[in-house]
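Researcher: Final request for today, and then I'll write up notes for the group meeting. The sequence and the SMILES for S-adenosylmethionine follow.
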Amino acid sequence: MSDRPILIEVPPRFRVVTGPWDAEVDERTIVLGKSHAFGDGRHESTRMCLQALASFAPRGGFRLLDVGSGTGILSIGAAKLGGEAIGVDIDAAAIAIAEENARRSAVEARVRFATTWPSGTFDVVTANILRDVLTELAPRIVARLAPRGTLILSGLVFTDVPELVARYSPLLAGRRPEIFERDAWRTLVWRLA
Ligand SMILES: C[S@@+](CC[C@H](N)C(=O)[O-])C[C@H]1O[C@@H](n2cnc3c(N)ncnc32)[C@H](O)[C@@H]1O
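Model: Predicted protein-S-adenosylmethionine complex:
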């Protein structure tokens, strides 16, 4: 098997490197080890989340809750944007992988990962998981969103959108999301500010 890193550009703000990386780890480079955990920047749902973070995360510092953190890629991306992040995942092995990836990416002081949800509210909440999980988690996710926060939901295909909007919009004062699309994949963004 090749020991060469895989490089994925996620313009305009990030590049994701998976595998050995001896070069500089700058503010746009997310470095991941090879692992079974999901989230290496190749999937459209992850890429759209990174791009939504780059576009909509508040400038000058913010707190992110990353539900379903996988490799930690979104938390690490948020830290590269100047935020502080907490990632939660039901997979304890993914937590250890995400912690290692945060070290590889030189942002371990700005992120942490756990299998239990933190208390409090967050300026930005991301959740890139499948439709049924997002539907079930809706009240817990919305409860963690600050009143003027930004919610980014992904992992959805176009046929999932009506159900997800019907589930989340009533919990968000009737607000409708912006919908971003790439091929069949959709990302929903509620900006409450
Ligand atoms: C599609 S991956 C997303 C990984 C990464 N955040 C990304 O954007 O590429 C979904 C992750 O959600 C986790 N997950 C599934 N159900 C969950 C739940 N109920 N609570 C928290 N995490 C969950 C999975 O273990 C998996 O790591």
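Model: The CA atoms of residues 138 and 168 lie 6 Å apart. The chain has one domain: 6-191.
Researcher: Thanks, that's everything.
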